Amino acid sequence: MNRICALLLAFGLAAFPVREAFAAGCELALLLAIDISGSVDDAEYQIQVQGTADALEDPEIADALVNGQVALAVVQWSSIGMQKVVQPWRRMETPLVLEQFARTARIQERAFGKADTAVGDAVAFAVAQFAAVPDCKRRVIDISGDGVQNAGGALPLARDLAIKAGISINAIAIEGIGVAISEFYRRNVITKGGFVVTATGHTDYPRALRLKILREVVRPMG
Question: Mutual orientation of helices 119-129 and 155-164 as an angle, nearest 10°?
Answer without folding.
Answer: 20
